[in-house]
Amino acid sequence: MAPQPELDHGEDAPLHAEQATGRGRVTGRRVQRTVNFDQEVLDRARAAAAHLATHAPEAGVRSLADIVNPAVAERVAELEERFNSGQPFEPVFRLPVGRPREWPGT
Questions:
Q1: pTM for the full predicted model
Q2: Is 80 in contact with 87 (CB distance < 8 Å)?
Q3: Which Gene3D superfamilies match (predicted)?
């Protein structure tokens, strides 16, 4: 079996075909990423995180990440169920920059 290429997952690293998808990603650690939110959603989430961290420790929310991570996990699980027979999608280390110009079939 050929050795696997060492993968560079940095945001500025060039994307090579062998790096686009694959297995072996480390789980359980937090990584920082830039994501665009609708301003109203972000404002509400920040307010909730700040209030709950200060006034309701029983909510288990100490940061914005404590709201975002479970929400994203729930949505991804819904998408896996609906579009991938309940199985995780093939891992992708980096997404292409920008949006697709058109959806297929439109």
A1: 0.65
A2: yes
A3: 6.10.180.30
